[in-house]
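Message: I would love a firmer grasp of how sequence relates to backbone shape in proteins. Thank you; the sequence and its tokens follow:
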Amino acid sequence: MTGSLPIVAAAAVFIACAALAALAFMLWQARRPAQPEADADLKRAHAEAAARLEAMIGLLAKGQSQLAHTVNERLDSVSHRLGDSLEKTKQQTTENLQKLNERLAVIDSAQKNITALAKEVTSLQSVLGNKQSRGAFGQGQMEAIIQDRLPKGSYAFQQALSNRTRPDCCVFLSDKRPLVIDAKFPLEAVSAFREAKSEDERKAAAQRVRADVGKHVADIAGKYLIPGETHELAFMFVPSESVYAELHESFDDIVQKAFRSKVVIVSPSLLMVAVHVVQQIQRDARMREAAGRIQGEVGLLIEDVRRMVERVDKLKQHFGQANEDLRQVLISTEKIEQRGDRIKDVEFADGAAETIRAPAMPKLVAGE
């Protein structure tokens, strides 16, 4: 369709040029002197030119009609495509506006969450600033970790030991000796160490950290590590990953000293890992206990099978004896039949066969 427009236009131009040429030829012939033969030829040429001109005019009209039809089709196609494009653009614009509104709603919700989080951080700072509130916060965080990952009955909070002390948590291992977890940590010294501005203040705060943490480690080892009653290790829970990292980075000697005292300092993530290990130990212990019970039941089952085999052997012997008795009975029956046949074939002297009647069985009278 795209190549038809130039062709039609070229045809129209050609027809117009031919018509002009024919008209010029007719005018030229009209100006020549009149001659009979020339007039006849001129008339024939004039007639032929007129016929050709009419044919060209018809062809030109047909080309113009095709051109108009083609132009109308092109305009319809362009209008249809333009309408589709506008409709698609409208839909895309509507969808983009809807997505933009959704994202604005998400941003608004995130802004509200950030505002609420800022308030919570402020309240958390106030909680951590109070020693009693901080202890309750650490206790609650530790209890949440334990309760979420260990089954009930495998731990206890504030359980009394033989020396009348009550640790924050006791986790019962496979040997029934509890693993003690202490959730109280001296945070004031670490906070002072972080907020120290001069070198002297930093040194004084570091000495305070070593003294407070060392005393707390000694208290845990003295109160909660009871030989034969509790596990040989105890956990000191630090309810902050950053504080735990600060201890390992700046006070590695305290961490090593605590480990030598059999007190392991753990952060929330390490406590989760330790609880997971304890869970695996408890599961293995339950599996070993279940395997022991299964082994005992299998032993009893083997004894039952052995007794059943013995009884089957005895039953087999009884069946064998019964089969032998039955075989003997069948042999006796065959002999009786053979004897009956021989008795039946006996011939008497007079040649007459007499019927041998069996003696009548005595009748049994009730009471005899």
Summary: The beta strands are 155-157, 169-172, 178-182, 234-237, 263-266.
